[in-house]
Amino acid sequence: MPDGGRLLVVATPIGNLGDITLRALDALREARVIAAEDTRVTRKLLTRYEISTPLERFDEHVARRRAPELVARMLEGDAIALVSDAGTPGISDPGEQLVDAALEAGVSVEVLPGPSAIVTALVASGLPTHAFYFGGFLPRKAGERTRYLESLVALDATLVFYESPKRAAATLAALAEALPGRRAALARELTKLHEEVVRAPIAELAARIGAREELKGEVVLLVGPRTADFIPEAPADDVIRARLATLEASGIRRSEAVKQVAVEFGVARKRVYELAHGE
Ligand code: SAM
Question: Is residue 266 part of a domain?
């Protein structure tokens, strides 16, 4: 392979454009070309740092098709930088196939470490960090999601999931049902102006987020490990009422909502029934 041909996997900011390393800027400047998930997004970063390296599209739709061609160019001596819209390429973003193809072809691969929402959210949550499990985006189908979550129940690790803001409340409700009695957190808009970390026992977190009108921005959901000494906090009456109201507003019958809330919060159905009927 001629000198210089290599793949540079470059992590970029997850919000605050200041979170770029000096080494990342050098790599983006010196590469022959930058393969980017969305060239418009990356152009903003390049403009901010006055970098004029040409950009080429490398998103999930073209990754499989374009990987061999990019590998061939690296074998001819091109240094190609790979970036995604935000964070580390290959982490719930295109990249894995290109790295695999490059290594298989004997191309050298350099990963330039930098931001990723997983580690930022984990540390910001204050939940245990001795071990963590990253589950990416959970399956959208309820049955598949339940089976998957059941397979994680015994893990002694904090669970980290990516989610879209639109589905965060429903996913938290599913997490509360599958993993009751745990500490949990929602990390939103990390490194940005409206950064927020909400921490609460899982059922309460589900109720609080479910009661919000709209959740904006990017979110990470985290669930602490099952611990022998964790005693779930008894949820306050207004938290139970808010969850009931959210479920009923989404079209669920009151009797069903009572059943579901009792399971989610691990409290007696009689108490939920009484609160639902204003007693
Ligand atoms: N490659 C990225 C990384 O290394 O973190 C992840 C890309 S994935 C398509 C996008 C998801 O990451 C979002 O839906 C959200 O769950 C999470 N995410 C990215 N940036 C975030 C931020 N600033 N705050 C909270 N979550 C974020």
Answer: no
71 C-alpha to ligand 1 centroid (Å): 27
Classify strands 79-83 and 33-36 as parallel, antiparallel or unpaired: parallel
Question: Is residue 194 in some structural domain?
Answer: yes
Q: Is the beta carbon of 197 within 6 A of some atom in ligand 1? A: no
- Residue found by looking up tokens 């589905």 in the block: 167
Triad 193, 198, 204: Cα angle to 5°: 150
Digit-coded pLDDT (tens) for 73-112:
999 999 999 999 999 999 999 999 999 999 999 999 999 9
Q: What residue numbers bound the domain in which 212 lies?
A: 118-233
How many angstroms separate the alpha carbon of residue 58 from the centre of ligand 1?
18
Query: Does ligand 1 lie within 6 Å of residue 86's CB atom?
Result: yes
Most distant CA atoms of the chain, gap in Å: 79
Collapse the DSSP code of 110 into the 3-class scheme (helix H, G, I; strand E, B; otherwise coil) and give the result.
Answer: strand
Based on the domain organization, do 74 and 139 belong to the same domain?
Answer: no
Q: What is the DSSP letter of 129?
A: -
Give per-residue pLDDT as tens, 190-205.
999 999 999 999 999 9
pTM for the model stands at 0.85
138 part of a folded domain: yes
Give distance in angstroms: CA of 87 to centre of ligand 1: 7
Q: How many domains does the chain have?
A: 2
Please state the rounded mean pLDDT for residues 43-60: 97
